[in-house]
Amino acid sequence: MFGTLSSLNRRLDKLEQELADRAWRAKLGTCNCSYVTIADSARPEEFEAEMTLRCPAHGFRHLGIIKRVFSYKPDHNVRRDSQLDRKFAEMMATYNARLDQANREVAHEPREN
Ligand SMILES: [Zn+2]
Question: Which residues lie across from 72 on neighbouring strands?
C-alpha cells in the first residue's frame, strides 16, 4: 500500500513538473525582451517608453545592449545637448536600478527540482 502511494506521488510530481515546464515554455513565447535597443538622442521619450514596457514572460523587460545614437549637424559634428545628455543619464540610472532589482528577485526565487 505504501509503495503504491509513493509511486503515485512520484508520478504526480513528474506530471506537475511537466505542466510547469509547458506553462514556462508557453510564457517564453510571449517574451518581448531585446538583445539590442537603439536610443535616439533626439527622442528621449521613445527610450523612456521602451523602458516602461513589461515583458509578459519575465516581468522586467530586458533591453539588452543599449546604444545611444546621435544626429549630425550640417558642419558634420555630432549634435549634443547637455540637457538631453542629463536626461539620458538619469534614464540609464533608472533602467540599471530596475535591472539590478530584477536580477536580485530572480536570484531569490526558489529553485525547483
Ligand atoms: Zn522577456
Answer: 78
